[in-house]
Amino acid sequence: MSGNPSDVRQAVLARLRFEQALGLECLRPRALAPAPAPAAETPQPEEAATRRDPAAGPRGEPPATADLKPGDKAARWKDLEARALACTQCPLHQGRQHVVFGEGNREAKLVFVGEGPGADEDATGRPFVGRAGQLLDKIIGAMGLAREEVYICNVLKCRPPGNRTPNPQEVAACSPYLEEQLELLAPKAIVALGSPAARTLLRTSEGITRLRGRWMLYKGVRVMPTYHPAFVLRQYTKEVRKAVWDDMQLVVKHLAEA
Ligand code: URA
Q: Which class for 66: exposed (0-12), middle (13-18), buried (19 or more C-beta within 10 A)?
């Protein structure tokens, strides 16, 4: 940021808007326009349709992929989603209500990757729709984006019992779906929300506190690790909110660069 008073004012207002979006009530300067309303959370028609009709075989087996042309992205997405929805690769499929494949703009420049579905996501089949999801929507809004503009998914597509941390076998079984999603999306940046997402993408055992705030690379794509919104809700301190704000500012800046 320059020392120009107008830039400083814009930066301060943006930070206050972020704080406001995250629920801080005590700061309401007159110049602070209402934060943009979070966008509606209606799934895309194509996603809703494939969720109801997973195109799996009669015994739930994945459909054949051999005939798919690499350039036919729509067919590859359909095939990938159908395979994920029919997946029985790890024991988590036994307790699931829904596979939470992911949703959003398949041409997105920015992808958010979380850990795995919670109870609300398992019940609806949609990622980040519970309390953590509402906070994520606010973070996305404070970045000047709408939920529909980005793509949101998780490392695990099925809910671990009691929302426990994914185990290595589950991550190994499920992460190929994430890898295919990211290959098809080819975004400009990925935000890894929390340790499991950052560790899976970056193949490290470091914790999120050490990883966050620095650009890393996943197959040539920039990854910004940051705190998971559920952690922000649990640890609702100025330091944690500022850390997420700083990390998201780096992402906004990178997206704005040509
Ligand atoms: N937490 C996650 O990591 N993902 C979700 O979809 C919801 C909560």
A: exposed
| Residue-level pLDDT, tens digit, the chain, 258 residues | 567 777 777 777 777 777 776 665 445 444 444 444 434 333 333 333 333 334 444 434 344 466 788 789 999 999 999 999 999 999 999 999 999 999 999 999 999 999 999 999 999 999 999 999 999 999 999 999 999 999 999 999 999 999 999 999 999 999 999 999 999 999 999 999 999 999 999 999 999 999 999 999 999 999 999 999 999 999 999 999 999 999 999 999 999 996
CB of 156 within 8 A of CB of 175?
no
The residues lining ligand 1, judged by C-beta closer than 6 Å to any ligand atom, are 114-118, 121, 127-128, 130, 132-133, 154, 230
Q: Angle formed by the axes of helices 45-52 and 73-85, to 10°?
A: 40
Whether 27 and 20 have beta carbons less than 8 Å apart is answered as yes
Q: How many CB atoms lie within 10 A of CB 106?
A: 16
Distance from Cα 128 to the centre of ligand 1, integer Å: 5
Please tell me the distance between residue 155's alpha carbon and the centre of ligand 1 in angstroms.
Answer: 9
Q: Which of 127, 138, 36, 146 is nearest to 84 (CA)?
A: 127
Q: Six-digit token pair at 159?
A: 């809910």
In contact, 196 and 171? CB cutoff 8 Å: yes
